[in-house]
Amino acid sequence: MNLPHHAARAAPAVTQATAQGGEPLVETRGLSVKHGERRALWDVDLKIHPGEIVTLVGPNGSGKTTLLRAVIGAVCPDGGHILRKPGLAIGYVPQKLAIDRTMPVTVDRFLALGGATDTASRRAALDRVGIPALGGQQMATLSGGQFQRAVLARALLRRPDLLVLDEATQGLDQPGVAAFYRLIEDVRAELGCAVLMASHDLHVVMSASDRVICLNGHVCCEGTPTVVSARPEYRALFGMGTEGTLALYRHVHDHRHDKAAEPGAGQPEPQGCCGHDHGHHHDHEAAPGAAHETEETGR
Ligand SMILES: Nc1ncnc2c1ncn2[C@@H]1O[C@H](COP(=O)(O)OP(=O)(O)OP(=O)(O)O)[C@@H](O)[C@H]1O
User: Fold this and answer.
1) 79-84 and 90-93 beta bridge pairing
2) Cα 131 to averaged position of ligand 1 atoms, centre (Å)
């Protein structure tokens, strides 16, 4: 791939040990974010080290997008700190990218509009993400998977130290999801960038991440996929299906927490809960297409 500055970087053999070493690229300390009166995040401590793949998992409304947008600087903290390594380059693949379908924009033009003036680099980026022949095609005519690859190519052209992806595989079928995550792993291995992503694709996430952070307004638990998937907080959020299979469950509360001792007391709470021994019944509803995925935590 002919992405000049990255090409010069040695592809690191990222292991848990190396990934945890050195100065973090980004660190949040006691981060809290409010949307209006509603507290979306509180007390979030997070460190992203060079070369590691970190995945945020959590129910709908648990603050994943808010945290990612705070990390890239698109959302202002209401409390706490965000520290970024000086000169940090971030590539961002948003959850939804609205493109006016009536506006004719080729893939190549889309990349150029993102600031990539060099034709050879744009070609190399499309090559890297597996759509080398689509430069002249209209963005509006791309499939979901091709579209996300084009958006990824644009993010890579920023030569990121940190690639931030927000549910980038939404709308893709299972083979498309798996292929996209394989691509992310290849990109990380080749370019040496760290990856911070939010995802609902637990099956793939658990096999493709160095570290998983289980979020529900605050950090419920974190660690390697193997460690996190065994934690009661994680299981309270995502549940265990029959025969040891992992299912993505949506928590529906039929009770109120004792919020007196919690941050954000008196405010509407995110769906789901963790880190508390509730001793009550939850109504679980399997998310569409995600039920009974085989647990696969080994790397
Ligand atoms: N711009 C906004 N204005 C008001 N409230 C918002 C805004 N953005 C998010 N929220 C609220 O903040 C909370 C966290 O939202 P966020 O999108 O970060 O969660 P999420 O975990 O990414 O959800 P999902 O998995 O559904 O994408 C939700 O309750 C949401 O309704």
Assistant:
1) unpaired
2) 32
Pocket of ligand 1 (CB under 6 A): 35-36, 38, 40, 58, 60-66, 270
Distance CA(279)–CA(20), nearest Å, equals 36
Question: Highest-confidence range of 4-8, 15-19, 34-38, 265-269, by mean pLDDT?
Answer: 34-38
Mutate to test the pocket of ligand 1, among 65, 68, 269 (most ligand atoms within 8 A of CB): 65
Beta-sheet strand order (sheet of 194-198): 90-93, 162-166, 194-198, 53-57, 211-215, 219-223
Q: Is the whole-model pTM more than 0.90?
A: no
- In one letter, which amino acid is 152? L
Residue of minimum CA distance from atom 18 in ligand 1: 63
- Compute the distance between CA of residue 176 and CA of residue 217 in angstroms, rounded to an integer: 29
Distance CA 179, CA 144 (A): 13
Structure confidence by residue, pLDDT tens digits, 206-233: 788 999 999 999 999 999 988 888 888 8
- Write the secondary structure of 176-242 as one string of H (helix), E (strand) and C (coil): HHHHHHHHHHHHHHHHCCEEEEECCCHHHHHHHCCEEEEECCCEEEEECHHHHHCCHHHHHHHCECH
Measured at the alpha carbon of residue 63, what is the angle toward residues 62 and 68, in degrees to the nearest 5? 145
Q: Which two tokens stand for residue 32?
A: 């809290």
3-state secondary structure 88-115: CCEEEECCCCCCCCCCCCEHHHHHHHCC
